[in-house]
């Protein structure tokens, strides 16, 4: 861990400058110096031109020396003496008077005389660093020197009374603000001081013990607990610096010290998307882009500029002589002397660099021998009285010049924004689909109703017409009958007339007695008229029948047309259904792509050797649980109903027997079904009785398939919610099995399930001993290597559960020794994450800490790793009242803590 950063590549880079030595007696040829300086300044500019694509380049730490003008006191006191240094800025040399007749000459990257303006100092010392930070590299600007030589003047001056006096911090932010775009880029700043190995937030003084978080893999350090303020304009930054200054003053007054004893550190985080490297997802105009094309995540660069105003360098030698206890003196100087040691080791290419010796060197591990572009300004005074200090400052600068960094582009894929975009796209598609479906259903309903009404109308018309027709037919028939009758009558009448003639001649005697009744001519006329009318009526009726027949045909045609329309609509319905199926397919695909991405994001997050410090990073993490959550529901909720059906139809025994099927696919499906069933409390007993738990444990033991492990562990975790099952799991060797699995897999989802199962077991008082003996607690501790927040939350829950049982046992007097959590090494992680951004993790850990603190025997270890400060913080800041009160009570009732607080003169209680 603590070997020289940069590996072999770094050494190769160093070899390039091997013949360049900065000693008093030897001068390197100025051409090699020039080429080197050019090299170190061109990285940013050639990158901006885009002509070369180098993700890592070698960059030596650049060192400038700045001489402070004589102050009024020196003018009087040292009036008769010459300055102890002589500067030759054009040669970039400095001569240090050794004695009256001898001097040493040193060469620096820049030599800044007492006349150098603040602007010039910024341009030669910090501007190249600021530019490369804007290009995506980390950068450090640091001032080192004796108190009173101008470190704060150089870095931190606000120039309120004289604009020309603005220091490096302000000018750097001005350049950054000018370059970034407010819409796409973001700038966040934290500001803190390091005093006696304690980090205090200068933007929130109550936050007075910030922990350093270190990524065990990439080695990146961050301060998740430090306040991060977003900077949008120059004014807000000035206000931030003023606040920091005021708090620094207040803090130092409270700690009874001066600022010269503490290191002030300003961190500026810059996040910028890389133009031209992002892919476009265009759904705004409704075009559906092929999904594969939308999956290229945009590239972002996250870099940080660290500006460090170190404590006075005289502290190294003089500490202890200023009324400090030895312990305090050691602490004050620890960081500064550790920095010197690291720089010596790096300058000498030593195999061991003691980075971990102090908080300062841990914080600056990227600045010296790491991947940042680093510029150091050493400040000296002219007074011969401080010759010794000046000399040691110069030697520090000389050694720092030999430190080689491998400057590295801090570029990463922005999976977060891609995932966000995909989710928006998915939501849009889903909403659009729903809208279309609804409109379509309404349309179908409307047309069907209209068609039915139409048909009913036609039918009615048809019956009416038929009725009419029948009447007319009857009428026509009766007419015919009438005509016939009339004809018969007329015939009869004609015959009678003849008979009348004959009888005149005595032919028909009989008829004489019965004279025939003849209609009068009026009657005939009337009849004729009636007949005519009837004929007329009949004709109109016939015309009407014709007309109705025509209408009937017309209606029939319309009906046929409607029918074909209905057919057409039916077809359209089918088409729409097909379209719907397609859309659903697409949504499914999008969802699975999303999962894929979360996976990749997770993977690459682990692989990438960088990570933005602080809250910004954890907000990236917060996205992942969402995506994972969907994955965890596999098989999906929609399948649940079908699983239950399957369960009813096939029967539990059959399903369980499928767990041992030879066909891998069948096994996977079966275990998924069992897991789904086990999620329902009502099924759990049946599953266990039917031997399901044993089968699941067996699967975990014997299967080689990661999916099976994940799902089986999930099912076991669900079953482990019940106390009886917990004991069964233990009895069947489940604890050691789960513990083994925890060390064997790297799959975050499997780990989450395993951690969840163990966490459940941890809550059982009867299982405490077994959990320890079978490695359950060690497994929990080991699982934190997977930094997935869901896994960490389960681990934290397990620890909280375990600690709770332990504290119960200790009150009952059944447990007397130290906590197993402490013995198995969980405490450092607990302390580091006590203020984790993810609230589920934080809450459990806070609880765990409170429970651990209940037992007096744990106090010493807890104090040792800084848990006391976390408890103090919890007792003050925790948003959950019960935990806060518990922490307060515990702090007051534990004599070990009380003693320590008293020793540190912290007023508590
Ligand atoms: P340090 O932070 O190293 O202890 P300061 O920045 O506080 O030193 O400087 C000490 C004093 O010297 C201050 O009064 C400051 O204004 C003055 N000073 C420092 N550097 C210069 C300079 N280059 N020009 C003028 N005054 C300076
Ligand atoms: Mg200062």
Mean pLDDT: 81
> Which descriptor suits the 3D outline?
elongated
- Which regions contain 5 or more consecutive residues with pLDDT less than 50? 1-55, 278-286, 504-512, 609-638
Helix fraction by DSSP (H/I, runs of at least 4): 55-70%
* Helix-and-strand structural type: alpha+beta
Main beta sheet: 10 strands, mixed
User: Rg, please?
Assistant: 47 Å
- List cofactors, ions and other ligands: adenosine-5'-diphosphate, magnesium ion
Oligomer: single chain
Strand tally is 17
Strand content: 5-15%
- How many helices in DSSP terms? 36
Q: What is the rounded distance between the termini?
A: 42 Å
3D architecture notes:
The chain has 909 residues and is of the alpha+beta class. The chain is built from 36 helices and 17 strands. Strands 2, 6, 7, 8, 9, 12, 13, 14, 15 and 17 form a ten-stranded mixed beta sheet that branches. The protein has a three-stranded antiparallel beta sheet with strand order 3-4-5, with helices on one face. It starts with 6 loop residues before the first helix and ends in a 6-residue tail after the last helix. The protein binds adenosine-5'-diphosphate and magnesium ion. Residues 68-69, 145, 147-153, 260, 312, 379 line the site of adenosine-5'-diphosphate. Magnesium ion is lined by residues 151-152, 259-260, 309.
């Amino acid at each position: 861990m603590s070997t020289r950063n940069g590996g072999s590549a770094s050494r190769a880079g160093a070899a390039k400058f091997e013949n360049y030595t900065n000693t008093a007696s030897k001068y390197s040829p100025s051409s090699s110096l020039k080429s080197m300086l050019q090299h170190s300044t061109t990285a940013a500019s050639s990158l901006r031109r885009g002509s070369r694509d180098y993700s890592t380049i070698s960059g030596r730490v650049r060192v400038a020396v700045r001489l402070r003008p004589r102050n009024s006191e020196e003018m009087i006191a040292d009036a008769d003496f010459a300055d102890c240094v002589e500067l030759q800025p054009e040669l970039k040399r400095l001569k240090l008077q050794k004695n009256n007749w001898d001097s040493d000459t040193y060469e620096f990257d820049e030599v800044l005389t007492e006349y150098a303006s603040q602007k010039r100092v910024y341009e030669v010392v910090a501007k190249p660093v600021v530019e490369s930070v804007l290009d995506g590299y980390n950068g450090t600007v640091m001032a080192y020197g004796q108190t009173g030589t101008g470190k704060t003047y150089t870095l931190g001056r606000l120039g309120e009374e004289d604009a020309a006096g603005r220091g490096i911090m302000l000018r750097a932010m001005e350049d950054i603000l000018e370059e970034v775009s407010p819409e796409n880029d973001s700038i966040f700043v934290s500001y803190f001081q390091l005093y006696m190995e304690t980090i205090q937030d200068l933007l929130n003084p109550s936050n007075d013990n910030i922990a350093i978080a270190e990524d065990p893999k990439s080695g990146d350090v961050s301060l998740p607990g430090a306040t991060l303020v977003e900077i949008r304009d120059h004014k807000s930054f000035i206000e931030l610096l003023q606040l920091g200054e005021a708090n620094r003053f207040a803090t130092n007054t409270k700690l009874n010290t001066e600022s010269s004893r503490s290191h002030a550190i300003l961190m500026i985080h810059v996040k910028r998307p890389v133009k031209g490297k992002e892919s476009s997802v265009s759904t705004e105009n409704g075009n559906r882009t092929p999904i594969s094309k939308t999956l290229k995540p945009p590239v972002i660069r996250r870099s940080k500029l660290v500006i460090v105003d170190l404590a006075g360098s005289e502290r190294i030698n003089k500490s202890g002589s200023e009324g400090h206890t030895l312990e305090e003196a050691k602490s004050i100087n620890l960081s500064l002397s550790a920095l010197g040691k690291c720089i010596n080791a790096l300058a000498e290419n030593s195999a061991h660099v003691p980075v971990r010796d102090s908080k300062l060197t841990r914080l600056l591990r990227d600045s010296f021998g790491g991947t940042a572009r680093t510029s150091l300004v050493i400040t000296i005074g002219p007074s011969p009285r401080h010759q010794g200090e000046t000399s040691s400052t110069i030697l520090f600068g000389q050694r720092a010049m030999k430190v080689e960094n491998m400057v590295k582009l801090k570029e990463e894929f922005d999976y977060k924004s891609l995932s966000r975009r995909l989710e928006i796209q998915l939501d849009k598609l889903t909403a659009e689909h729903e809208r279309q479906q609804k409109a379509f259903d309404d349309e179908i309903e409307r047309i069907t109703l209209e068609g039915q009404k139409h048909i009913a109308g036609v039918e009615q018309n048809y019956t009416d017409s038929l009725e009419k027709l029948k009447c007319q037919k009857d009428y026509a028939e009766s007419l015919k009958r009438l005509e016939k009758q009339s004809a018969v009558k007329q015939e009869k009448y004609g015959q009678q007339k003849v008979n009348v003639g004959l009888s005149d001649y005595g032919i028909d005697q009989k008829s004489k007695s019965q004279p025939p009744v003849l209609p009068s001519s009026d009657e005939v006329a009337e009849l004729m008229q009636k007949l005519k009318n009837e004929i007329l009526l009949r004709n109109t009726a016939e015309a009407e029948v014709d007309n109705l027949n025509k209408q009937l045909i017309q209606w029939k045609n319309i009906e046929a047309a409607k029918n074909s329309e209905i057919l057409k609509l039916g077809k359209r319905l089918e088409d729409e259904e097909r379209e719907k199926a397609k859309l659903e397919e697409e949504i499914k695909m999008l969802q699975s792509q999303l999962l894929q991405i979360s996976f990749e994001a997770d993977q690459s997050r682990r692989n990438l050797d960088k990570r933005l410090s602080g809250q910004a990073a954890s907000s990236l993490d917060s996205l992942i649980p969402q995506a994972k959550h969907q994955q965890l529901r596999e098989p999906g909720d929609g399948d649940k109903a079908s699983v239950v059906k399957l369960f009813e139809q096939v029967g539990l025994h059959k399903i369980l027997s499928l767990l041992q099927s030879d066909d891998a696919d069948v096994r996977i499906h079966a275990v998924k079904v069992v897991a789904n069933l086990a999620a329902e409390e009502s099924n759990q007993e049946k599953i266990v009785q039917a031997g399901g738990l044993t089968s699941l444990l067996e699967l975990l033991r014997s299967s080689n398939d990661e999916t099976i492990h994940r799902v089986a562990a999930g099912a076991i975790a669900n079953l482990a919610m019940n106390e009886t099952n917990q004991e069964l799991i233990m009895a069947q060797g489940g604890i050691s099995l789960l513990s083994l699995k925890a060390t064997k897999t790297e799959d975050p989802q499997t780990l989450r399930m395993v951690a969840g199962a163990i966490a459940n077991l941890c809550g059982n008082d009867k299982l405490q001993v077994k959990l320890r003996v079978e490695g359950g607690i060690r497994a929990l501790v080991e699982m934190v290597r997977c930094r997935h927040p869901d896994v960490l939350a389960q681990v934290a829950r397990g620890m909280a559960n375990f600690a709770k049982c332990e504290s119960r046992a200790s009150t009952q007097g059944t447990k007397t020794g130290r906590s197993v959590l402490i013995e198995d090494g969980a405490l450092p992680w607990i302390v580091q994450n006590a203020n984790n951004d993810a609230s589920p993790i934080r809450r459990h850990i806070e609880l765990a800490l409170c429970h651990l603190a209940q037992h007096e025997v744990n106090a010493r270890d807890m104090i040792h790793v800084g848990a006391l400060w976390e408890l103090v913080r919890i007792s003050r800041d925790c948003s959950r009242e019960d935990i806060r009160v518990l922490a307060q009570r515990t702090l007051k009732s534990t004599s070990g803590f009380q003693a320590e607080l008293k020793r540190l003169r912290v007023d508590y209680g």
